[in-house]
Design goal:
It is built from 15 helices and 16 strands. It is an alpha/beta fold. The strands form two sheets. Strands 5, 6, 7, 8, 9, 10, 11, 12 and 13 form a nine-stranded parallel β-sheet that branches. A seven-stranded mixed β-sheet has the order 3-2-1-4-14-15-16. Helix 3 (about 145-160) runs parallel beside helix 4 (about 180-195). Bound molecules: guanine (GUN) and zinc ion. Zinc ion binds near residues 83, 274, 326 and 329.
Length: about 450
Amino acid sequence: MTHAPMTADTRIALRGDLLDFTADPGFAAPAQAQGVRFRRDHWLLVEGGRIAGVQAGEPGPDWERIDHRGHLLMPGFIDTHVHSPQLDVIASYGTELLEWLDTYTFPAERRHADPVVAAAGAERFLDALLAHGTTAAVVFPTVHKASAEALFAGAERRGMRVIAGKVLMDRHAPDGLRDDVRQAERDCVDLIQRWHGHGRLAYALTVRFAPTSTSAQMRMAAALLAAHPGTYMQTHVAENRDEVRWVAELFPEARSYLDVYHRHGLLNERSVLAHGVWLDDTDRALLRETGAQVAHSPSSNLFLGSGLFDWPGTEGQGAHVSVASDVGGGTSLSMIRTLADAYKVQALRGVRLTAWKGLYGATRGAARALHLDHEIGSLDAGRHADVAVWDWSSTPLMQHRVDLAHDLHEKLFAWMTLGDERLLQAAYVAGVPRYRRAPGPG
Ligand code: GUN
Ligand code: ZN
């Protein structure tokens, strides 16, 4: 898409039904939930790419008015764990985690050693995120420096809030996918200098998972994490039972899988740990103490048969939980579909996830866990205007069901359960329209 340049005094006003959250609704029943803010048919004022305010009345002539009346406007979704090269292996048949990595994922990621493949993959991935209403993400590219470069460059061109870093893997991975400590350190330092804090980008030290990094590599990552303020750490933890057993063999001195990362100095309030299905109470207490968060990936956990994450138990011990697609273990970039899966995972544990709690976890909750709630995740004044515009339904059946809803939660819950990216009409990033659905036939 081509756009008029956004300047500090560009003023636009978006009209629609505004939904965001002022606080965590928790696992309260729908009617008791706090923190839900719904403003039907209001105007969202955007000035210089940031939210300037919300009002019921029509703004004056010095605002460019964009009419999304009858549509749902929410903060853009935040996907806290997703793999850009894995669009190539999404929906691959028949395996659990470790076999899935060997059979599908590693061979696919190796192809991204070619900078042309890496660049095309990054572009495809970022455009796909926007077409799913996701405007911010914490992303794994591949072990190749060029794949991280391509991702940062593409995110910068789109103005997106992306946290990423080259994957670290110096053992138990095939040829063409391994680095070594010294080369990896040089690549990370170079990438940090080029991209960390540049525009809306941040660097994440990206230990793929404990089995594919030596202790020396994890210590190197921890040293960079400590040396570069504001950098993040992302990895996987306790996803699958065979994986957990393997980590116990590799690190017999550690109390648990999570403790491996703790011992290596990798846990802090900017650590994003995908999955956490097989954590215990001591691990969850360690999450609270360190401020690290779990990126809950329900679609992936169901698809790979990994297990059922204890969301309320994890938060009950004071740890942060956000929601993630984990494509390509997950089967959709849509955070709506991801939330529908999250509901089903909790249902199997005897817990009911409200639409409020789910949508909070994919917006303000994720922003808070990432310490970015001053910038994204809500429609508060001062936030970047990362906004998704949604239809209320995408099929006659969905329209029928939504029309029968007695209250807003029932309507949103049907929307979350039946919806997907086909509902998306437009996505704005810092006030710039970066995605608009093509008009249908006729
Ligand atoms: N553990 C290590 N690598 C991966 C990956 O790419 N996807 C998932 N789901 N788990 C992992
Ligand atoms: Zn993952």
